[in-house]
Specification:
By secondary structure, this protein is an alpha/beta fold. The chain folds into two domains: about 130 residues, Response regulator (Rossmann fold, 3-Layer(aba) Sandwich); about 100 residues, Winged helix-like DNA-binding domain superfamily/Winged helix DNA-binding domain (Arc Repressor Mutant, subunit A), CATH 1.10.10.10. The protein is built from nine helices and twelve strands. The strands form three sheets. Strands 2-1-3-4-5 form a five-stranded parallel β-sheet, with helices on both faces. Helix 3 links the parallel strand 3 and strand 4. The radius of gyration is 18 Å and the shape is globular. It starts with a strand and ends with a strand.
Length: about 240
């Protein structure tokens, strides 16, 4: 299915490669080389964009700032964002994810990997759209995992899980945003409640406990080394 993709990238060699590869897959691609120009285009665009691919370092306005805007702007707040970055340190990648990106690819990149990430993010959007009715009922499902936020219960297949409150909150965070890489900082914010202090290392402990209770399905929670975790979107 054809999707409308906005690529914001100031290196022409890279934007040309992206344009050709994405158009070969049937997508409608618009390339903008300046961050400030991209923001103006996004605000004035009437037709909905399906996916944003943003370079981290841009003239005018950085990719991180564009991410923050997209997450605040009503028309784009739920749309997928793929960040391209030449910065490979975990803390730099975390900054982009905390700004609102769903996933990232480091430069130089393999085009087959990038196209796979694009497919996964577009598939995630389709999955979320199909699940809207169930979400209205407080139910979130990915693969064999399901949570009912009205009952505060979770299941793997037909087996109800005996989770701590923090484990339950983590599972809800993952299932609400399948395929999205969630940093430890984001997960801390999601489960922090009351006077109990939660740290990023505490998150690792809760993830360990959650995986243990998932048993043979523990690999559904993927570790993104040095960054955080995610549950892969349903294929």
């Amino acid at each position: 299915m054809s999707s409308k993709i906005l690529v914001v990238e100031d290196e022409k060699d890279i934007s040309d490669i992206l344009s050709v590869q994405l158009r070969n897959k049937g997508h409608d691609v618009r390339v903008i080389a300046d961050g400030s120009e991209a923001l103006e285009y996004i605000q004035g665009q009437n037709e909905e964009i399906d996916l944003f691919i943003l370079d981290r370092m841009l003239p005018g306005t950085s990719g991180s700032e564009i991410c923050k805007f997209l997450r605040m702007f009503k028309k784009t707040k739920d749309l997928p964002i793929l960040m391209l970055t030449a910065m490979t340190r975990p803390e730099d990648i975390v900054e982009g994810l905390d700004a609102g990106a769903d996933d990232y690819v480091t430069k130089p990149f393999d085009t087959t990997i990038l196209l796979a990430r694009v497919r996964a993010l577009l598939r995630r959007t389709e999955t979320l759209q199909k699940a809207e009715q169930e979400k209205d009922q407080g139910i979130y499902k990915v693969n064999s995992l399901k949570v009912d936020t009205n009952q505060c219960k979770a299941w793997i297949e037909d087996r109800e899980l005996d989770l701590t409150l923090s484990e339950y909150k983590l599972l809800v965070a993952f299932l609400k945003q399948p395929g999205k890489v969630l940093t430890r900082n984001q997960l801390v914010d999601f489960i922090q409640d009351g006077p109990v202090h939660v740290t990023d290392r505490t998150i690792d402990t809760h993830i360990f406990g959650l995986r243990k209770k998932l048993k043979e399905y523990s690999k559904l929670i993927e570790t993104i080394r040095g960054i955080g975790y995610r549950v892969a979107a349903e294929s």
